[in-house]
Backbone:
């Protein structure tokens, strides 16, 4: 494996290029303090609730495989009462097999907080696993850890309440993909907020930086907007050029809602041609991938190239803005931009028209970078 590029060299000299397989293994993770340790907390289920979560997982594994992040583990939401599937430990196993990695996973608490200050002191050891995992990962890390949240915020909220000083010193930031910046109806809450509103509220009290990625510009209005992460992604475009049989098998296992226990052997053969052709005709609502780029110090250009955030300049597709935000225990949030640093940031799309196409191309680049 070549190690001739440093991360700084790649992101400087290679800033105009998309990430592809030629940059794989550019640096040794443990030796480069610029590479952020990451915990990815997700509502990933099989059968799936929404396929975007499986795309998200493939993207964070790709960033980890390319040594752009140090992926320390996957936190899986406990299924809420209305969820058909169980936590998709098989998807994590499939991507570990594809990438030749050993990223661990843990299932979170089945209990929710009723107010933002709850620490859930009476949880059983079984229900405390995810909380203890977050705390121990921060304690044992050689540098501050970034935490992504693309589902329920319960385990992160409780861990931060139990160990505020630890989060102050060892959490590089929480990257929260929840909520909306504008409400079509005052009583309407975004899905991830509804799971546990008080846990969502607790995110705005964290003793560490909070990077807020609202799912919606206008809640449940399925189109891209200036202050929301949502975009439509064409399956045909995102899979263009993706020839990896194991990776296509990973996605087919998810899309087909397979009940087969053969999660490994499913990745050894291509998807059925006729059935896969139908998948390619569809499109997918997507939300969270921009947060993975931000925590890695990357951004996307208006033409879909993945580049260093420091190098992008006026070509950046999005950026983070300082924000003041207050949230009630019921999940109702008030926010406004701030001219002064607040330790709180909000996602801002700079070119709404080109955002869906550019993000689709960026996701495709991450899929292409995964092993064949």
Residues:
């Amino acid at each position: 494996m070549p190690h001739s590029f440093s991360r700084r060299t790649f992101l400087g000299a290679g800033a105009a290029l998309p990430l592809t397989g030629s940059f794989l293994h550019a640096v040794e993770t443990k030796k480069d303090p610029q590479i952020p340790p990451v915990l990815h907390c997700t509502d990933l289920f099989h059968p799936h609730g929404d396929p975007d979560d499986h795309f998200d997982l493939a993207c964070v594994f790709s960033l980890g495989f390319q040594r752009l992040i140090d992926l320390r583990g996957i936190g899986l939401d406990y299924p809420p009462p209305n969820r058909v599937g169980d936590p998709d430990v098989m998807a994590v196993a499939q991507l570990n097999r594809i990438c030749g990695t050993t990223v661990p996973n843990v299932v979170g608490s089945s209990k929710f907080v009723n107010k933002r200050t709850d620490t859930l002191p009476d949880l059983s050891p079984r229900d405390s696993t995810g909380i203890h995992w977050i705390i121990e990962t921060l304690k044992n890390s050689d540098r501050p850890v970034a935490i992504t949240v693309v589902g329920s915020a319960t385990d992160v909220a409780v861990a931060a309440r139990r160990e505020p000083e630890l989060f102050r010193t060892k959490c590089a930031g929480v990257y929260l993909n929840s909520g909306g910046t504008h409400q079509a109806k005052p009583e309407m809450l975004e899905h991830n907020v509804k799971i546990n509103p008080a846990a969502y509220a607790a995110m705005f009290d964290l003793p560490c930086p909070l990077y807020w990625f609202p799912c919606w510009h206008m809640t449940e209005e399925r189109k891209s907007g200036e202050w929301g992460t949502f975009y439509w992604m064409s399956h045909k475009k995102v899979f263009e050029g993706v020839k990896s049989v194991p990776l296509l098998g990973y996605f087919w296992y998810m899309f087909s809602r397979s009940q087969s226990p053969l999660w490994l052997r499913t990745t050894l053969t291509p998807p059925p041609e006729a059935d896969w052709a139908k998948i390619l005709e569809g499109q997918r609502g997507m939300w969270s991938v921009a947060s993975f780029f931000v925590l890695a110090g990357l951004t996307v250009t208006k033409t879909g190239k993945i580049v260093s955030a420091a190098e992008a300049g006026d070509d950046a597709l999005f950026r983070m803005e300082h924000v003041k935000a207050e949230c009630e225990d019921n999940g109702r949030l008030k926010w406004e931009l701030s001219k002064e640093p607040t330790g709180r940031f909000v996602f801002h799309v700079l070119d709404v028209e080109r955002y869906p196409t550019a993000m689709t191309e960026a996701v495709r680049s991450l899929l292409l970078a995964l092993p064949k």
